[in-house]
Design brief:
DNA polymerase, domain 1, single chain, mainly alpha
Length: 92
C-alpha cells in the first residue's frame, strides 16, 4: 500500500471560525453580557439582521467608527449605512 488513488485523504482541519456564533451564544448564556466585549454584543445582535455574513468585522467597524455600543445605538441611520456591510435591512 503506497497511498495510491484509493488511499483516503485526511480531512482538512476545521476552520477556527466554524461554530463561532454558537460559542459566543454559549459564553453569553453561561456568563452574561459582562463576559463579552462591546463588539461581541453588537455582533450577536447583528446575527439576526445579517444571517449569512461574518458580522464580527462589521461589529468592530461600527465600534471603531462610533466609539461605544451606546454610540452605535445612538448613531443616525445615514451614518450607520456608511459602514461597509450595513445596509437598509440592518438599520430598520
Amino acid at each position: 500500500m503506497d497511498g495510491g488513488p484509493a488511499a483516503k485523504k485526511a480531512p482538512a482541519p476545521e476552520a477556527h471560525y466554524h461554530g463561532h456564533r454558537d460559542r459566543l451564544r454559549e459564553r453569553y448564556r453561561e456568563h452574561g453580557d459582562a463576559a463579552l466585549a462591546d463588539y461581541e454584543i453588537l455582533e450577536m445582535l447583528l446575527f439576526r439582521l445579517i444571517p449569512r455574513k461574518d458580522t464580527k468585522p462589521i461589529a468592530k467597524a461600527l465600534i471603531s467608527r462610533f466609539g461605544t455600543l451606546a454610540g452605535v445605538f445612538g448613531a443616525p441611520i445615514a451614518l450607520l449605512q456608511e459602514v461597509n456591510g450595513i445596509g437598509t435591512s440592518a438599520t430598520r
